[in-house]
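Annotated sample (chain length 1085).
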Amino acid sequence: MLATEHPKLESYLRTLVEKASFLTERLNEEFISTPNKSDESKVNSHLKFWCEVLARGDESLFQQRLAADGLDVDTLHTLLGKVEYPQSQPLPSWTQTLKLILQAAEKTFNTNTFSENQIPFEPFYQPFIEVAQNLLLSRINLNILSEEAQKSLWRSLIERLRNIATPTLFAEFHQFRSSGNPLQDFLLIELQGKNSQEKYHAFLQNLSQNGLFDLFDKYPVLGRLLATAIDYWVDATVEFINRLRTDWLAIATLFSPKTALQQVVELKANLSDLHNQGRSVIALTFDTGLKLVYKPKDMEMELAYNKIISWCNERDDLPLSLKTFAVLHQGKYGWVEFVNQYDCDHKAAAERYYTRAGMILAVIHLLLGTDCHYENLIASGEHPVLIDLETLLTHEIRVSHQSNSTVPFAAFDIAQKQLEKSLLRTMLLPQKGLIAKDSVEIDLSGFGGVEEYQSPMLKLNHVNTDGMNIGYEVVSVESNPNTPKVNGVNLSPLPYLEKLVAGFEQMYRFFIKHKQSLLQADSPLMGLANQRIRYVFRATYIYHSIIQSSYSPEFLDSGIKRSLGLEVLARAFVVNKTMLHRIGILNAERQAAENGDIPFFTINTSESHLPLPGKKAIGDLFVKPSFDAMLEQMQQLNETDLARQVNVIKGSFAARYTEEPKLPKNSFPITNGGENSIDIDIDSHIFVKQAINLAEELKQKAIFGEDGSVCWLGLSYKTTTEGFLFQPLGSNLYDGNCGIALFLAALAKITGDSQWSDLALSSLKSTLQLQQIQSSSETARLLRKTRIGGATGLASMAYSLVHISKFLADDGLLTTAKKIALLITPQLIASEKYLDITRGVAGTILGLLAVYKNSPDDSLLNLAINCGEHLLEQQVSIDGSKTWQTWNGIALTGFSQGISGIADALLRLWEITGGEDFLQAAQAAISNESSYFSQEAGNWQDLRPQTPDYQLSWSHGAAGIVLARLQHQHKHNNSQVSEEVNIALETIQKYGIWGIDNLAWGNFGRIETLLVASQILKRPELLQLARSWSIKLIEQAGAKGNFTLYENIISPVHNPAFLHGTSGIGYQLLRLAYPELPSILSFDF
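Output written by the structure step:
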């Protein structure tokens, strides 16, 4: 077909419009439905896909989503079928651009590149750039931009186009070059292809043969998106150039009053997400060296913020001055001074930088700021400068409790709300977030991210050759401009924590002192009223990920299919029924995403309704206007809240920087752990008294709910990345309420003091409610969140309740344990990817067997057997030995996430069932782990580091492995195992007490190993040694004011968690006084 055949071209474009029509357009009745029976299978396929995308196949949730929009399945059969574009209506504007592209593409592609950086399938974009150039230059003169700056504009367009087209072009290329013979393809493409371009050029020639008609006939949505991207880019660029030309004099007057501006010589576009029809931030440099930033949005908030900072700078009692920046506000857009990053001059300047960082933190906290991530802050010498202030005065979203004040708040909800309103919401404090499918953590915060890190990035290799392929490349990511430096060296905020805290406290008290002045009618705070600000409904990276996925070729053959793929955004609405009547937000999100924009919502600071496209609004989304909330926060500033916020700072730093201690290179003198330190007359009451002290601290730090529940803030451990989060603790044993309740219940049993049993039961309130779950959707959500593992999942809760029921003589808790255990199903077990004790199937065995032993039921035993069989199925052969890959594809040694834990679980299952397969698998695992035992080190290798090292901890070292071996040593006469255990016990004694004190990584975990060894091996001297070490640790804690939970944190924060915190230490102290208490680290039952 030739583009000059006008009638056929019009028909072709009309067909493309119909195929590429989006759900939003069909809902708005912009198309005429023409259903027929031949469409029925396709419609049913669409419905099934839609249900799977938004509700994971849950039909009831799908129906609720449809009902929220006034839809039903019958209506959708009409909506999702064949449609026609009205003959009376002109075709959409994007078709005119696509027509020009098709005409330009009739010429054969020039295979010469026209950009500095290699772009996949670069010649493909020639007709698109040609059309864009003609459209742009027909509307605007670019003479105020240098030739280099103009090139930057074209590169910015290519970046947008390649982002859309590359997935489809690569899929088509991969199919084109394939011979159908995998071996031949491997030899010709994978091995030799990177040195050849024969097939690559043939593919481009094939694409151009029919002027892209065939490509867009197959992928009509691709044609629409590329044409739309050009239209958006041209409009936004024309708008930018016109504004620059109009404002030239005003720019010169404000930013360069002494030197005339002649031309823009450098330009960087696409510096922000695309909003509002492809608009984005642009940085520009003039011939004088002046640098500015163009922002296509309202700049009133930047002006108001600068006025507040200037007002503070004018006060004599401000600790240090804060930097402002020049702004030219022009209504719907503006020009901002470019803030340069440069080093601090010396250490004293660095200290002032972090003092100012604390001050800025207080300012942003007062102004209800959010989303102040690393891209929004510049380290400009000794001044931290925020450069994007669109998320100040963030509105508080209304939750169901606030809609129904008669429902009492649970402790967890109160704790969660405290953190949501705390300094954490600013995103300035160091904190890590997950990327790369839960395998890598990076710090995106304003004050964090100073370290270089490595991340696997998806990329095309051997670009524009026959061997072009997709693969992961580990990329080193350096620090950003938010990182302060001295002499080019990045400065971590950790050594400056006290300076940051001091700056925050000083600024907070500055606001308290000037509270009345700031609340006056002429205060700069009043300038924040009636400001139009952005409301970030959900994290931008979520939008970006979903939109990028929608560019996959499987979504580009049908506009309706792409729209339904974007309905993954609806999951947040169907899982939270209070959001269903706010479905208009979803529709606005989907409409923006359909056209490639990141959704962008704005709201007035003095209003509480969220405007939507089409003069619609959501009236009950927010609690109150954010300006009112800011004034209330100002009025409520006090020393109690100050102390709470300082605790959040310290908690954030503890979570961000706490690391597992490394084994000292040299052991300590024998007096640290030898006979000289043993005292046979130690009074057990000392341990109980210290345990009571820890329980008193727990009670003091507890957050009590209106419903009688209780919760704590603490450090929650992420096993996949070995990092922490500072947050309300959940329900599990490892670092949740079940572990804390276990300690409190044991203390109640030992002391007879009912306050501890009461506190234990209050802390279990949310866990006990799990037995009331009835709907399948509620169960599914619970299991996705908690999983089934022995220390962090459902099995951990069941295991804890078994022991708590004994401590408190409460059979009802055992009944609850059984109900929770039976929430675990064979399907869940079969789909569980984690295999270890802490989070996986091995730990599930121990939890199930604990309940089974105390409340026999074949259903429980059968589930445990299912777990054992799943472990057998997941075995892999490594160096001729059967084992399990338990962590990042590695077969770890150790108890918590390694081979010892799995072997222990299988041996216990064998002892009850007699299943020989379980015994053989366990023995093979122990044999495999023994191959990593070093006689010289007296320890097993820790295989997590690239260069294997050694640990003595319960989690990954000798203490945990010895515990696992001891459970079965007396039943199996294995001289090698006995020898390894004895040598490892000597190693533990040789190193004595060192590092930190918790159970998982620290001294009390090793003390538990000595205690169990004394019981099983009949060696009372080990019990005395364990008690002696504990006395010394108690003395050290008394001198410092706390047990050591962190090795490198100057200002510690309370952590009540069991494995990494004080409740575990408390329980261990009780075990030292009463060794008959069960060994939780051994998973006794």
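Annotation: Residues 269 and 282 are 4 Å apart (CA to CA).
Annotation: The first strand starts at residue 32 and ends at 33.
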